[in-house]
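Pilot study result, target chain (275 residues):
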Amino acid sequence: MHTMWKGSISFGLVNIPIKLHAATEDKDVKFRSLHNKCNTPIKYQKVCPVCEEEVKAEDIVKGYELAKGKYIVVDPDELKALEGEKGEKAVEIIDFIHLSEIDPIYFNRSYYMSPDGGAKAYGLLRKALMETEKAGLAKIMIRSKEQLAVIRVYEKTLLMETIHYPDEVRNVAEVPNVPSSDNVSKKEIETAILLIDQLTTSFEPDKYQDDYRNKVMDLIQSKQKGEKMVTAKTEKPTENITDLMAALQASIDKTKPEKKTTKRKKTTKKVADSK
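Predicted structure:
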């Protein structure tokens, strides 16, 4: 399993070296965007609309937009200094809570945590969480963003789930057209409860699948068997001329008359004069 982050968990004086691994993966069927004329994959380039040239990664800076067209430029080193001494290598447990106290709307992404040499300390935290039936509430820096996270036990493995901060969850009172009261009869609610009881079952995740994705893959496989695959054309090499003077000079060189043609004209003139 690919390691996407290395650091340590700390709670009190206990320090546990760990690795993070993505617990979930995106199974969406991914398509490339092709030019329908030649079946070549489309490029997406970062281009400055004023300079009319492609911009390299090292030439890009971060800017916070205060107003339309007005920015405050922030240097990456300035942001790095704000991370503090622990930076992006520490998961600090700040509280212990009951998991049931967190509404699912707060949950974001899940990561498996494996020990990176501290197996005994890893086992200690796992056992303590299982015995107390609690979860650790922690903070972690991932990709220059401070995340709030919950650390709990999932099938004998420590699992970290990043959660949203309260100000990242939109106010439910702003949802439009929600009725303030339930205008239903007793018979209607009894019928609805009966239907719910009939459809109630134990959650077995393996019996659910993405029907649409399966149909898309069946379509692709049938096309692969019955149709010829298209092939992208080879990209033509292009001259990368960004300097204005270089572009002008290149244009002049291409339109210059050949020297041989000039010599022929002079020779023809001498013959005419001798006559």
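One observation from the pilot: The helical segments are 76-82, 119-132, 186-199, 211-226, 244-255, 259-274. A full batch analysis is planned for the follow-on phase.
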